[in-house]
Write a structure and sequence with these properties.
single chain; 3 helices; Gly_zipper-like_dom
Length: about 80
């Protein structure tokens, strides 16, 4: 078997590229929480406006914005 520069067996990928990518990875749990909150907001808003589809569309937009903020802030993320 062929060994790569790090001394391990060749895996067919460059270790420096994968190590850098893993450090910048964003946890998707914040986005999931934001979308769930947005869905709830959208259903409530749509019911109040008597247009459920429009309310859900607005709520999902709000949810994505909330989720993006939560993902970037690291709120509730695993910082281990």
């Amino acid at each position: 078997m062929v060994e790569d520069a790090s001394g391990g067996e060749e895996t067919g990928r460059d270790r420096t590229d994968t190590d850098e990518a893993d450090g910048d990875e964003v946890d998707g749990s914040g986005m999931g929480v934001g979308i769930a909150l947005g869905s709830g907001i959208g259903v409530a808003l749509g019911t109040a406006m008597d247009d459920l589809a429009l309310g859900i569309a607005i709520g999902m937009g709000i949810g994505v914005a909330i989720g993006a903020g939560l993902s970037q802030s690291g709120f509730g993320g695993d910082e281990g």
